[in-house]
Amino acid sequence: MSIVNLKDVGYDVNISNHFTKKILKKINFIAHPGEFHAIIGPSGCGKTTLLNIIGSLLKPSTGSVELFEKDITNFSEKNIHKIRKNIGYIFQSVYIPKNMSVFEYLIFFAELSGLEPNKAIETSNSFLKEFNLQTLQYKKSDILSGGEKQLVSLLSILISDPQLILLDEPTGSVDYEHKLRIWESIKSLCKTNKTIIVVSHDKKILEYADYTHLLNYGEIFQQKK
Ligand SMILES: Nc1ncnc2c1ncn2[C@@H]1O[C@H](COP(=O)(O)OP(=O)(O)OP(=O)(O)O)[C@@H](O)[C@H]1O
Ligand SMILES: [Mg+2]
């Protein structure tokens, strides 16, 4: 069973009436349960665009997208939400509502995933402890650093426990020690059969990913199996 299956996916943008830029060309990409895929490539090569297509946020200009073995290429917004509840996504720029504390944010995600309030508090506490981030618990989002926001956002994904996890530069602003912990915990998710797709410039990812794909000039090349 495939979790993601892209067939000949292309993505074009109209720069002017006379010029169309081909950001992605004929991308073929397949991911199964328990696999950790890394997508690397220079700035502006289309990594975020590709992740947005996989995450059902953008429709491809050509080709087809299957998620969980359903062709969603022409799905309506109404039908797409059933698919989206199985996806966790950390965006390149993390957003946490302004007046929310870290603890409130994590509890919110725990409740969204179906936990009762007491269990949601308990789970949020244990994740903060596991990552040694208790000092952030009552901090409001507007005083968090970029790296702290990324860590909190990652915890919210771990708490939500989706089948498919998409991460766009999850360690971009994080210190070395937390980076290693992030890659370790992402890797351990594969043992629970999750599918992880990460876009990153962090070379460390090459040691953890099962498959590395290089994106360049709109085309994708698999480097390692
Ligand atoms: N709607 C759009 N209109 C015009 N150009 C776009 C549009 N969306 C993306 N692009 C261009 O497509 C290219 C790929 O963008 P994308 O954000 O996917 O790159 P990236 O590989 O994630 O880069 P980075 O590593 O810097 O995050 C860039 O040159 C960007 O400017
Ligand atoms: Mg990007």
UniProtKB/TrEMBL annotation:
PROSITE patterns: ABC_TRANSPORTER_1, ABC_TRANSPORTER_2
One cellular-component annotation, GO: plasma membrane
SMART domains (alphabetical): AAA
Keywords assigned by UniProt, alphabetized: ATP-binding, Nucleotide-binding
Span of domain ABC transporter: 4-225
Domain of life from the UniProt record: Archaea
Molecular function (Gene Ontology), one example: transmembrane transporter activity
SUPFAM superfamilies per the UniProt record, alphabetical: P-loop containing nucleoside triphosphate hydrolases (SSF52540)
UniProt-listed InterPro entries: AAA+_ATPase, ABC_transporter-like_ATP-bd, ABC_transporter-like_CS, ABC_transpr_LolD-like, P-loop_NTPase
Cytoplasm listed as a keyword: no
Stated name of the protein: ATP-binding cassette domain-containing protein
